[in-house]
Amino acid sequence: MFENRSWQRANGPTRRLWQCLAGFGLAALLGACANVDQQPAQPQPDQSAAASPASDAAATAAKASASPQQAAAPVTRVVTKTTWVRVRRGDSLLGIAASHKVAVKDLAAWNGIKPDSHVRIGQSLKLVSKQTITVQTAAPAQSGGATAGTGAATDSAASAEDSRQVAAEVKRHARSVALVWPARGKVVEPFEPGTTRGIEIAGKAGDPVIAAADGKVMYAGTGLNEYGSLIIVQHNKDFLTAYSHNRRLLVRTGDVVRQGQQIAEMGSENNDRVAVMFEVRRDGKPVDPMPYLPTPQS
């Protein structure tokens, strides 16, 4: 079993490597923010000379009704989250379902078992929950009565743009990188914040370990003892994946890899079983890989 090898126990070289890689992502993120152009407001021609007194009054009323800054309108979206729970002594399927406030039949369906099935100590069970998140977006501008038709079209376009922005924001936080499973096998160690850094997928010695997504190999070697033979792949400015305890590495630092490409052979180096420890790091911090992986395993 995994022996509670926490991030806090990592040695100095381990911390320096991850901090270096995390810093690289942060620098890129800050650079992207600095390059956002600010578009100045376009001046409107003055038509007051040709306007009649009635038109002047209507224009004045329209300006008075418009606010200089639109209030933020909260928009909610529902995202699905997957977590894992380990069966402990005395646990039952019914008890676990009750403690997590889910139906037994749902818990059984998520794990491909029957509602009356017995669970064993150490078994990992999947829990699926839905979370509602709220994103603040700019409310669409309201137009005056004289241009009601144009204003309605503008409002509709603004609302559609807001929806696209919200969807993009949800996607960024819920599934910012599309991954595939790095190996075929059973998840024998789930992710536990503060205790484990990722998930362990068991298999046979020599089984292929593949890149979970396109990216660049930032590290490939054996210099970090607790990881054994380790590969770290950077996918974008926010996300890295790591693959450890391999028997043989098939890529080098600096290589560009494609999703599904074999990068290593599964092994048991510095581990008590044949498995690949798969980590996902966002902004340098370990996160649960399961929400980023397809279900069922493919």
From TrEMBL:
Annotated region (Disordered) at 38-74, 138-160
Domain LysM, residue spans? 83-127
Quote the protein name from its UniProt record.
Answer: LysM domain-containing protein
Signal found in the keyword field? yes
Q: From which residue to which does the signal peptide run?
A: 1-34
Does the keyword field hold Signal? yes
Keyword list (alphabetical) reads: Signal
* Family classification: Belongs to the E.coli NlpD/Haemophilus LppB family.
A single Gene Ontology MF term assigned here is: metalloendopeptidase activity
